[in-house]
Amino acid sequence: MQKNRFKILFGTISVLFFVIFCKLFYIQMIQGGKYSGISNKKRIRTVDIDTLRGTIYDRNGSVLAVDKHSFELTVMYEKLFDTHSCFKQNILPRVSEVKNPALNRGLCKECHIDKATWVEKVAGLLDIPYIDVFNKATEIVKNVENIKHAVEKRNERKIRIKEETVPHSIASNVPWEKVAKFEVEMLNLPGIQIETNPVRLYPQGDMSSHIIGYVGKMGEKEMQNYNFKKKWFDSLKNSDESESEFFTQKAVSMDALIGKNGIEKIYNSRLMGIPGERFEEVTLDTMRADKLILERPSIPGNNIFLTIDTRIQGIAEKALGKRKGSVIVMDPRNGEIIAMASFPRYNLNTLNRDFAALSKNRLKPFLNRPIQSVLPPGSTFKIITAIAALEENKIDENTHFPCYGSLKVGNIRFRCNIGNGHGLLNIEEAMQYSCNVFFFQTAIILGGTLLKKWAENFGLGDTTDVGLIYEKKGNFPESRSISQTINLSIGQGAMLVTPIQIARMIATIANGGWYTKPHILQKISDYKGNILVNNKYELTEKINISEKNMNIIKSSLRKVVTDGTAKKADLEELQVAGKTGTTQTARENENHAWFIGYAPFENPKYCFVVVVEHTEGHGGAVAGPIAREILTQIGI
Amino acid sequence: MYRLVGLRNFDWLIFLVVCLFLSTSFFFVWSASSESFAFKQIIWIGVGVTVFFVLLMVDYYSIGKISYILYLIVLFCLFLVLLFGKTVYGAQRWLMVGPISIQPSEMMKITLVLVLSRCFVDKKSIAGFSGIIFPLALTLLPMTLIMKQPDLGTSLILIPVFFSIMFIAGVKTRYMFTIIAFTLSTIPFFWYFVLHAYQKTRVVSFLWPDTVSNWGSGYHRIQSLITIGSGGSLGSGWGKGVQSQLNFLPQGHTDFIFSVIAEEWGFYRVSVLLCLYMVFLACCIGIALNTRDPYGRLIVTGFTAMFAAQILINIAMTIGLAPITGMPLPFISYGGSSMISSFIALSFIFNVRMRNRVALAKDGFYG
After folding, report:
1. Domain limits of chain A?
2. Domain count of chain B?
3. Which one of A49, A209, A307, A589 counts the least CB within 10 Å of its CB?
4. Which one of B230, B233, B258, B300 would you mutate to disrupt binding with A, by most A Cβ within 10 Å of its Cβ?
């Protein structure tokens, strides 16, 4: 019986083996072709093709930032590695000496001559010392070996990494004359190629550098944010988190340039374009591309048109000179920012080199002062105090207050800007001479709450959404005491605003109360020229101010220029109306000098804000001439 | 007890076949992963062979006598694993004892064979159904524990071991069918209460490959099929398999080494490998048939069933005939535990052959 049972047992095993055998036969012999076809499909590699970043233009079509092709000399990794190993063993005292047969009789010619002679040829054609080429090769090989080592350690096995199979750049920005020489010699230099690579160029150098911003390789943090596979899975789970415009790009290669600041950063995904793809068949042994299967060309990024006028921007930057501060020139009728200058600036083309020095500079060159510098507005704020008092019917044009040079409230004495006082004056005269005491008395009647309400009506202490990144908000504090209200009424104290907020305020005055929104983006077009976004702003919202009061303010602003604090700046013929401001800082003899205004005063075409930070002079004396210079050159 | 036996009865044919497996193992572990793994594999083979020869010196009867104690110890270890085990790939299978990690489920396969054989030899009456209850309990207890780790593959191995020992011990076939019917009726219970989600998807992806996505659980199966299929009749040559060299196939050097062999060697040579496995199993059954000792016969049957089940399930899994469970290919897959346990099992088979005798006296007589 047992023998039979063993037969059954063995029979079962045999039958199962036979089934496996049949299935194996079916898979390998009958369907083998199908499966090897599938496995071959896996040998197709996709390669990204770089795309051109969009161009940034000013309002007249002058180029502010553009991608230019630059030539790059690339060498296959194998060649670099061979050279490196020769160099490491110190068998190459001089390449030409190695070629001398007397010197290297003992060396294997095949390994040590052919594999390193390209270095001398390349060095000769590039006109650089051959040791530089060696060092570059060594550097690349060391980098790649480090990566390889890390990858192998993680996987516990030998792995051929992608970097070993692709060419590496050993010289970039090769001038075209040398490129032409190379093309002639190319046949003698296998494995060495000339490739074109887009490079960001800023034709205007340091002009409007803060607005344009700059590009750079993706950092650690951006990479984490970018990891789009993760993002894709996460978005399945919780999609309530709004996706920033910055990372809506579908595919980005590891070393693509992305915007890091300014317009380059805000409109990064529009500027970047879509990289193309190339499908290549790869040989298993060498991982080299044999055959091009399909190529999807890249789509260049969108072009951005700014409202900046390069000519006026240049004038503004020149007029500001080497004084720390900002200048904004804006069209009050539609909110377009025509110039926005800031000093100190940085040169965008040499930024990589200068970065270390710039970031240590105590003047903080990376600060975009028109939108990021928060300052007390000083006397320029008196416009708001005046409007608030007039509109709330606390005073009218006939209300007179006496000024004796100072005002004592409680135990504190608040001073006017002239020690002897201005005497008895009404609102227009008070604006004209920027009398502090008049506004102190107005503020006492008005109260802090109403003052804050009107300041907020004009958008002080709130971002303007001008279309630039990292805009500061400033601060308009709640007034808690009468002395605080008095300080706030002349724009001192804890009140902090950015120049762009003041620009919005003066533009609203220039418009007779029509609210305007500053913006810097004019339009976006695709690379064919079709306009995708047209950013036009119409005046639709009006702050409710009676015409009579508006005329009082407007005429007093004109009088500031003709007879008042800005008389010395000689702005009368330029049809300017404006207001000076001098903000005391904690330090002696250091003020912020403001001059804001618009021109022509009857039908304003431009409004402007000039602020020079930490200067000795007063608003009319320091900022006024800057405004005059700009307006003279623009031509009203 | 430590009776040295001459090499007269040493089975050279099986030894030769096993050596062929081992050299195949060395080369394909190398091809599928790297040199360093291949040399580690040599160390494991060395350890395995040492264990094999050391155990050969010990009479299997004396081990058989303490089999119940061994069983209890390993069972205790299985409990410990569930409590303090080291987790690898989401499963708690290893028990750390200092620097060494032990896989008690591997040891359980061997002890179960010993203890079941013991049980059937001791039982005078296996005519009644009640005689089967105790061995059944002995099998089910470790099975549940191993399944909880979770290690479906090893726990499934215990089933053919149990049935084959029972079958050869002479249990009536209708009892066996009763047990099978009962097991089948509990499948729904297992499906809903015992199996993990990933195990379910594996089963589903095996039964209906199109319903699951290519890149999910079906990925492994399809990649393995592509790997084997692209080998064709002659294979792509050692170290030149596209699929395995480019890492499309995960676990190429452990559970899926058969796919790598099939790709690089092709159908003809893999058929030879299958034939060698058949020869190996046939020789083992021959030993069971020829031995005159019922205990030895049951042991050899149990181990042969264990080998057969491992080989069949592993290969069936790589060619898409069985759902994917973690199951190494005996003597070929990379890995210390499976190599050592295979050598222990082999050692028992050799032991029985070399100490072939008739049970004339009671057990204690030989002591």
Report:
1. 37-62+204-306, 70-201, 310-346+369-634
2. 1
3. A589
4. B230
Nearest to A288 by CA among A458, A160, A118, A96: A160
Q: Which domain holds residue B182?
A: 8-355
Per the domain annotation, does B75 fall within a domain? yes
Banded model confidence at residue A499, pLDDT cuts 50, 70, 90: very high
Q: Worst-scoring range by mean pLDDT, A62-71, A182-191, A504-513?
A: A182-191
- B176 is a domain residue: yes
Contact flag A34-B229 (C-beta cutoff 8 Å):
yes
Return the residue of B nearest to A24 by Cα: B319
- Model confidence pLDDT, tens digit, residues A568-595: 888 888 888 999 988 888 777 888 999 9
| B72-82 pLDDT tens trace | 999 998 888 88
Choose the weakest-confidence range: A384-388, A509-513, B71-75, B153-157: B153-157
Cα–Cα distance for residue pair A24/A12, rounded to 1 Å: 18
Q: Scanning every residue of chain A, which has its alpha carbon at the shortest distance from the alpha carbon of B38?
A: A157
Q: How close, in Å, is residue A6 to chain B by CA atoms?
A: 7
Q: Which of 1.20.120.530, 3.90.1310.10, 3.90.180.10, 3.40.50.2300 is the CATH number of A37-62+204-306? A: 3.90.1310.10
Contact call for A32 and B245, based on CB within 8 A:
no
Range name among A218-222, A542-546, A570-574, B175-179 with the lowest pLDDT average: A218-222
Average pLDDT over residues A121-138: 80
Residue B68 lies in a domain: yes
CATH classification of A310-346+369-634 is 3.40.50.1820, yes or no?
Answer: no
Q: Quick one: pLDDT at residue B309?
A: 94
Enclosing H/E stretch for A34: helix A32-41
- How close B340 gets to chain A, by Cα (Å)? 23
Chain B residues close to A1, C-beta within 8 Å: 170
Round to whole Å and give the CA distance between A558 and A575.
Answer: 8
Query: B90 lies in a domain?
Result: yes
Q: Is A280 helix (H, G, I), strand (E, B) or coil?
A: strand
Q: How confident is the model at residue A172 (pLDDT cuts 50, 70, 90)?
A: confident
Tell me the pTM.
0.58
